[in-house]
What does this fold into?
Amino acid sequence: MRPPHCYVCGLSLRDVDEDQDLWSVFALVTFELSAEEKAVQEARNRDGWVGHPTGTEWFCVQHAPLAKERSHLHWRTALSELKPP
Ligand SMILES: [Zn+2]
It folds into this structure.
């Protein structure tokens, strides 16, 4: 799992006071995966893989609601809407 870093505005742990509760500032949002990606992820989970899961991104509290509104979308679609290139 990567450390918290808002996908939209780039807010990271460096911007947060040490005594602040991480989970009050950042939220992990999981988007939809394609069938193929799901199969790969499930195989990784069975192997005890501990990397950053596909389709999962960090958001700050300000942007988490926008992300959650799109959690039913495929992650590529959702992320391109949240931060157009
Ligand atoms: Zn943000």
The pocket of zinc ion is lined by residues 6, 8-9, 11, 59-60, 62-63 (CB under 6 Å).
